[in-house]
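PT: before anyone asks, these are the final sequences, not the draft ones from last week. 225 residues across everything. Please model them as a single complex and drop the result in this thread when it's through.
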Amino acid sequence: GAGVSQTPSNKVTEKGKYVELRCDPISGHTALYWYRQSLGQGPEFLIYFQGTGAADDSGLPNDRFFAVRPEGSVSTLKIQRTERGDSAVYLCASSPTGGWAGELFFGEGSRLTVL
Amino acid sequence: QQQVKQSPQSLIVQKGGISIINCAYENTAFDYFPWYQQFPGKGPALLIAIRPDVSEKKEGRFTISFNKSAKQFSLHIMDSQPGDSATYFCAAGGNEKLTFGTGTRLTIIP
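LR: through. Structure below.
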């Protein structure tokens, strides 16, 4: 596709359930990022992949959050035992190379609501 | 400190006027300062960015002014148009991470 694709666009779940959010980056982009945006706030960094490996996962709030990118393209953000405080828009972005030589291209996000 | 402080929270400007949004940062290791524009239901899109080795960058109607000693930077939108109505985020980059401000909701009125 032309841009970063995220699915689902909306996800409503119950407290304690497991959730997976998927990101399809722009073809050929080696760098992939996950951010979280709470209502009325700016995006908050979660994790950065360069290729298949997580180069920086320092933004993951706790061990309930995990992300993978097994083939260096599609990435999945996994949230275990969801809590109401996890409700937010989860944004994925990709970049041709990483670093500040290339801009970040964001998807439209996956809106997660935990009841 | 990783904070980026952004003001104002909301801004109303008449069509044709100048919109000015300000940001301040604390971490001197930041070396990349982009501004993003976000429309409702969409992801942020890069508007313009600057590095700390220059004090100003202009692209069309959009200008970033950067003051390294004060650790401040600002976005100026000249000849503001209704289509510019959106939320604007400043950000500061270091080590592959962007730290975003809290956003400014800009409304351009006829």
